[in-house]
Amino acid sequence: MTRTVFCQRLQQEAEGLDFQLYPGELGARIFQHISKQAWADWQKKQTMLINEKRLNMMDGEARAYLAKEMEAYLFEGKEVDIEGYTPPSE
């Protein structure tokens, strides 16, 4: 059976994640309020951010930066600012 959540990113009911993918309190919020679709969208943005800014994921500051960007994207509706990337027009 699939779980549905009211996705804070998409602002609609959508299929929820199967399990908590991120640790701690933020991970619990993501599990409860973010859909699979929004999480997949974030994963693409995260990959672009890591590559563009050449983030070292062993570095605590880089992880903290990504967590802040993730929270802003998923919960505050902010777009990720990736230099030199123009989103495809719809």
UniProtKB/TrEMBL annotation:
Keyword Cytoplasm assigned: no
GO MF, one annotated term:
iron ion binding
InterPro entries attached to this UniProt entry? Fe_traffick_prot_YggX, Fe_traffick_prot_YggX_sf
This protein's record includes keyword Iron: yes
* Keywords noted in UniProt: Iron
GO cellular component term, pick one: cytosol
Q: Name one GO biological process term.
A: cellular response to oxidative stress
What exactly does this protein do? Could be a mediator in iron transactions between iron acquisition and iron-requiring processes, such as synthesis and/or repair of Fe-S clusters in biosynthetic enzymes. Necessary to maintain high levels of aconitase under oxidative stress.
NCBIfam families according to UniProt: PRK05408.1 (NF003817)
Q: State the family it belongs to.
A: Belongs to the Fe(2+)-trafficking protein family.
Q: What is this protein called?
A: Probable Fe(2+)-trafficking protein
Task: Report the source organism.
Answer: Aliidiomarina maris
